[in-house]
Amino acid sequence: MAKRLFITGGTGYLGGALIRLAAGRYEIGASYLSQPPLALQPIAWPPLDVRDPQAVRVALACFRPDLVIHTAFVQYGPDLLAITAHGSGHVATAAADLGARMIHMSSDVIFDGERTGSYTEDDRPDPISAYGAAKAAAEGLVAAAHPAAAIVRTSLIYGFEPIDRQTQFALEIAAGHRTDRLFSDEYRCPIYVDDLAAALLELAERDYAGVLNIAGAERVSRYELGTLIVRALGHDPARIGAGLSADSPTRRPRNCALDSGRARSLLHTRLRGLREVLAERSLP
């Protein structure tokens, strides 16, 4: 009998990739809140508000998963802490009560970004944004409620089918529909969505507990990310201008590079860098 996988935020970008890759390997349940599924795949689709601990307990108890991958979050707004932080704790508590394996998705923006090198799993969060603070709080709540959970810190997620939000943003600048600039002094380790989803499903079959960095192999600026992908998609990036995060009126973490060496030694899934993904995608 196939194992049962429950994905929170199933209609999100990562959730969709997980469903595609897990189909046929697991019995899948996936939740949504404000974005209902466009197509009714042969999976369970319960609506779920992770702010409600009782609703979380009921949804997971009804599905009885062997594995929970928690991807649901919001990045801003009045419910930032309630959903991104406390909601993660509710999911972790319900998963632990059922004895389910849990993978919680965290972020590289839990750091202040002032380091010159890369952050490892041993580095403590030091957020400077509200979203980073919510993600850092979520890590603590998950670890306390479900000590056996894996807490995955990742970076910007990109992909092509469908195109991700930040790539769409860069395409709109390139087309002259926006006048925004992309920061040339803000660095991340972007990861291809299918690489991340495959790594998470592989990690699900291991008993790793605690923090694990899973990000792309290449450190690039937001400007590099935008221009390289726009060019790879056949568009002219000439209209994309470079800006400085240091000049932003809101303080932002500038270098959130993650060291994913531990994940590369643990997993068989290749965590490719941006240029490698784009080069392989262009092959006939």
Brief sketch in words of this structure:
This protein is α/β, with parallel strands linked by helices. 36% of the residues lie in helices and 16% in strands.
Task: Reconstruct the topology from this structure.
Blueprint: E1 3-8, H1 13-22, E2 26-30, H2 53-63, E3 67-70, H3 80-98, E4 101-107, H4 130-145, E5 150-154, E6 157-158, H5 165-174, E7 181-183, E8 187-188, E9 191-192, H6 193-204, E10 210-213, E11 220-221, H7 222-232, E12 241-243, H8 261-266, H9 274-281
Parallel strand pairs: 1-2, 1-3, 3-4, 4-5, 5-10, 6-9, 7-12
Antiparallel strand pairs: 8-11
Helix pairs in contact: 1-6, 2-3, 3-4, 5-7, 7-9
Key terms for this structure?
Rossmann fold, single chain, 9 helices, UDP-galactose 4-epimerase, domain 1, 12 strands, 36% helix, 2 domains, two-stranded parallel sheet, 284 residues, alpha/beta, 6-stranded parallel beta sheet, globular
What does this structure look like?
With 284 residues, the protein is α/β, with parallel strands linked by helices. It has 2 domains: 3-157 and 192-213, NAD(P)-binding Rossmann-like Domain (Rossmann fold, 3-Layer(aba) Sandwich); 159-188 and 218-281, UDP-galactose 4-epimerase, domain 1, CATH 3.90.25. It has helices at residues 13-22, 53-63, 80-98, 130-145, 165-174, 193-204, 222-232, 261-266, 274-281; strands at 3-8, 26-30, 67-70, 101-107, 150-154, 157-158, 181-183, 187-188, 191-192, 210-213, 220-221, 241-243. The chain is globular. The termini are far apart. The model has no long low-confidence stretch (mean pLDDT 95).
